[in-house]
Amino acid sequence: MARWSLWRSRVTVSLPWRGELTTGVRGGSSMPVVRQVDSHSSTVRPFNEIPGLWKNGVANLYNFWKLDGFKNLHRIMLQNFNTFGPIYREKVGYYESVNIINPEDAAILFQAEGHHPKRLKVEAWTSYRDFRNLKYGVLLKNGEDWRSNRVILNKEVISPKMLENFVPLLDEVGQDFVARVHKKIKRTGQNKWTTDLSQELFKYALESVSSVLYGERLGLMLDYIDPEAQHFIDCITMVFKTTSPMLYIPPALLRRIGAKVWRDHVQAWDGIFTQADRCIHNIYRQLRQEDSTSKKYPGVLASLLMLDKLSIEDIKASITELMAGGVDTTSITLLWTLYELARHPSLQEELRAEVTAARAESQGDLLDMLKRIPLRFNDTLFILLSEFAL
Ligand code: HEM
């Protein structure tokens, strides 16, 4: 089940119809005119000429529900692309979007975004923050507020320099995951293990991202999972599950009628923020106890707290979004990668050869090894794949 990435893939962009481009197309109909910039024509055409089903959101929501859309979104989108072409507009319930499929169109969009890209508004998530009077993180912020937070996070999260801090943590989790797989295979006594890998990879991704963000292991690679950690997983799963319907039905309405989906959503986010509070509390306790010259990397959360450039509320908001954003994206991509590798043994061999060669050349230095691998993966993905390959 694609939780986060299911709707994330709907990040909506309007291209190659150029105009006031935004990634969050809500309110897109206010864009009066867009220019088509395909190779054949540069005529200016109205936004309303984008093909698709956007005239009756309620009827579309009914059809979406009839097609079991929450489970079949990817199929429905593919069918729409086949019907309307590589750019189509739709309105399902109150959710209005323009969808693109060609990478070239995505590239044009990202180039046109400027310094303050308009983000997709995840109404369910912003409603929760407003409800609890909590701050938005980078995923939900816009404009200069987004940019100033993002610049600080860039240094702490995605700068290549940080890799050397993250890799040992990710490596440890990757090794544990592979050891767990081997143990499971051994236990069956049949030299194989049949399971729903999506759950395993979900736990793996969550363990990895938590380790990097909070500097602590949740223990999800063990057979016995601590009830507190299990509650945290359940909360994350629940956030994704309850987000899907609220993309199409306004959370404000669901809140007003006291709908279960809204109550569950609030309860799940409460659980996640409680965990963040607990981690912050632990980090402060450790900082008081530890020798300040300690060389050990304490995780993104502790680094941000020590850096003291963002408010605690801003840090907490972005950390929870980083955590939510780092789980499904990674686990589902990994699931598909493993599936495709299983279907293409020659590719598997190629990958194994590349990893083995890089390992030999780097003499076991993982950071050096990463630099030598010609394939481009996100690091969590790569580390696990390389551990599988060896
Ligand atoms: C294969 C893995 C991943 C995929 C496919 C993916 C995809 C995306 C996409 C499409 C966006 C929206 C970009 C935009 O609106 O301009 C995004 C943003 C984001 N992702 Fe990822 N992501 C992945 C991994 C991760 C990981 C591992 C984390 C956290 C550790 C993460 C955290 C975030 C956050 C916080 C944002 C919002 C950033 C901002 O608005 O400034 N993602 N991701």
List keywords for this structure.
Cytochrome p450; disordered N terminus; cholesterol metabolism; steroid metabolism; binds protoporphyrin IX containing FE; three-stranded mixed sheet; membrane; 63% helix; three-stranded antiparallel sheet; mainly alpha; lipid metabolism; globular; 16 helices; 6% strand; oxidoreductase; 390 residues; 2 domains
Explain what the structure shows:
The chain is mainly α and 390 residues long. It folds into 2 domains: 4-118, no CATH class; 147-343, Cytochrome P450 (Cytochrome p450, Orthogonal Bundle), CATH 1.10.630.10. 63% of the residues lie in helices and 6% in strands. It has 16 helices and 6 strands. The chain has helices at 4-8, 57-66, 69-84, 103-112, 123-132, 143-158, 163-188, 197-214, 227-248, 251-256, 260-289, 300-307, 312-343, 345-362, 366-372, 379-389, and strands at residues 17-18, 33-36, 44-46, 52-53, 87-92, 95-100. The strands form 2 sheets. Strands 1-2-3 form a 3-stranded antiparallel β-sheet, with no helix packed on it. The protein is globular, with a radius of gyration of 22 Å. 31% of the residues are buried. The model is unreliable at 1-37 (pLDDT under 50). Protoporphyrin IX containing FE (HEM) is lined by residues 8, 11, 23, 117, 119, 138-139, 150, 209, 321-322, 325-326, 329-330, 333, 378. It is found in: Mitochondrion inner membrane. It is a peripheral membrane protein. Pathway: Lipid metabolism; C21-steroid hormone metabolism. It comes from Liparis tanakae. Keywords: Cholesterol metabolism, Heme, Iron, Lipid metabolism, Membrane, Metal-binding, Mitochondrion, Mitochondrion inner membrane, Monooxygenase, Oxidoreductase, Steroid metabolism, Steroidogenesis, Sterol metabolism, Transit peptide.
